[in-house]
Amino acid sequence: MRLVGIKRTLLFAAFLGCGIFGLTEWSNDAGTVFGVSSAEARVGRPATPASVAGVARRTTRRAVVGGAAVGAAAAGAACVRVYVNGAYVCR
User: Fold this and answer.
1) Would 78 be classed as within a structural domain?
2) How many domains does the chain have?
3) What pLDDT, on the 0 to 100 scale, is given for residue 34?
4) Which of the two residues, 15 and 38, has the higher pLDDT score?
5) Residues in Cβ contact with 24 at an 8 Å cutoff, skipping those fewer than 6 apart
6) Is residue 30 situated within a structural domain?
7) H or E stretch including 33?
8) Domain range holding 13?
9) Alpha-carbon Rg of the chain, whole angstroms?
10) pLDDT range class, residue 58, cuts 50, 70, 90
11) pTM score, whole prediction
12) How confident is the model at residue 23 (pLDDT cuts 50, 70, 90)?
């Protein structure tokens, strides 16, 4: 076996070992527990509502889903057609 193959195998084994030991917990009720015992969701507004990527994504989605492309067809020559998510949108 080549040196690169041995290094790759050892690296994979190290990651696998760290992952297994990082995910196991001991519980008096259930014994060994793998994974996350409970999950919590935070409901509410996003932490960065004014982020550029988020605003652009939401605006584009509203334009495509809301039918703004139909009204934009009347804009004429001032409209620039942009291909977004499989549909042309007038910007």
Assistant:
1) no
2) 1
3) 64
4) 15
5) 32, 33, 34
6) yes
7) strand 31-34
8) 3-34
9) 25
10) low
11) 0.29
12) low
Strand spans (E) along 1-91: 24-27, 31-34, 81-84, 87-90
In angstroms, rounded to a whole number, what is the distance separating the alpha carbons of residues 73 and 2? 62
Q: Which of 45, 79, 84 is nearest to 62 (CA)?
A: 84
Number of H-type helices and E-type strands within the chain = 3, 4
Distance, in Å, from the CA atom of 24 to the CA atom of 37, rounded to the nearest integer, reads 10
Is residue 44, in this structure, part of any structural domain at all?
A: no
Closest CA to 46 of 37, 38, 55, 59: 55
Whether 62 contacts 68, CB under 8 Å: yes
Q: pLDDT at residue 67 above 70?
A: no
The pLDDT assigned to 76 comes to: 54
Instruction: Please give the Cα distance from 14 to 68 (Å, whole number).
Output: 52
Give a yes or no: residue 60 inside a domain: no
